[in-house]
Amino acid sequence: MVKKTNAMILILLALLLAIGGCSALPSNQVKSAPVTQINVSEEKQEKLAGDPVNLKIATLTQGGAWYVYGATMAELWRKSLPEGSVIDVLPYAGGIGNVELVANKEAELALSFTVTNKWASEGSVTYKQKYDSLRALAGKLDEYFVGIVWRKDFAEKYGLTSIKDLKEKKVPVRLMAINVGSLGEFATRQVLEQYGLTYDEIKQNGGSVTHTTFDVIQTAFQDGQADMFIQVITKGHQAVSEIALTTPVTLVSLEDEIVEKLKTYGYQAATLPAGSFKGQDQPVNTIGLTTVLIVNEDFPEDLAYHLTKALAENKPALEAGHKALSVFQPETAWQADNLGIPLHPGAEKYYKEKGWMK
Hints:
The protein is of the alpha/beta class. Helices cover about 35% and strands about 20% of the residues.
C-alpha cells in the first residue's frame, strides 16, 4: 500500500525499520547508517518555480535500503520543490519491476540497476518487450557484486578451485539460490551458463538446486545441507556474513574470460575487497552492477535538471540517509557504463553545465 505522508516521517520510519538492504533483491542486506536527522544544504537548495508537483518514486520493501534511498531523496527534493509538492515513496517493485512502473507511467521515478535497464531497453532476459522510453538521471549510486560462495570442506573434498571444476568433475553440488524471478537468481543461471552448466546438469550429476529465501539458505549452510550459493551482494552482505560466521566458506573468483562473457549482459568487471567477509583474506575477481535513478523520456526537462542538481550538490545529505550512497560520485554519474540506458536531456544539461560531461 502506498503511504502518502510527509517525506521526513518516511525517513524516520525507514531508518527505524532498516536492518539492512533492499529486500529479496540484492541490497536487502545493506545496513543503514544510524542517523536521526538529514541535513540538507539549504543554500544549495534553489527553489523550482511553478506549480506544485506530485511525484512517485518506486523503491522496494519498506525498511530496506532502496526504500531509505527513496525517502532520503524525497526529503532532499521536498525542500526545493514548489510549496505543496508531494513525493510518495512506493515500497515496491524492485530491480526487475521498477523499470516497468516507469515505462508504464505508474511511477515518475524509480531505482533500478544497470543490468535490468539494459535488459529492459533490449527486451531481453526477463523482459518480453522493449522498454525504450527509459532514461537515467544519475548512476552508480552504490556498488554491488555477484558473490559466489562455497563451503571450504566441500571444495577440499572435491579439489575445487574454479566453477569449471564442477562441470569437469561432475560434482554433486547442493546449490542454493534465491527465488526464481529475482535478480540474484538470474545472475546464478548466467554465471553457471558461462561454464556450460545448467540446473538440469547439476541434478543429473547427483546434486540439487533449491530456490528459497535468505534465512533458509543460512540455516542450510549451518546444518551442513548446502554447498554453494550465488547471489548479488554488497560488502558485508548480512546473509553471507552470517553464513561465514558459522561455516568456513570461500568466496570464489571468476576467470577473466568469464567476466568478459558476462559483460554482454551489462555487468562490469569488479573486485570484492579483501576482508569483506570473515575468512576472506584476498580480493575476489567477479562482476558488479550498481543502482541507477531512472525516469521516463517524457519527464519534464526542467524538473529532471532540478532533481539531478539537488542530488549532485547534496551528497552529504545522501550519505547521512544511507552509508551505501557514499559511493555516489556526481562527476561520473552520467557515464554510460553506470547507466545501462540513455541519459535524460535535463540531467545531461546539468552535467554539461558543470563541465563533467563534454
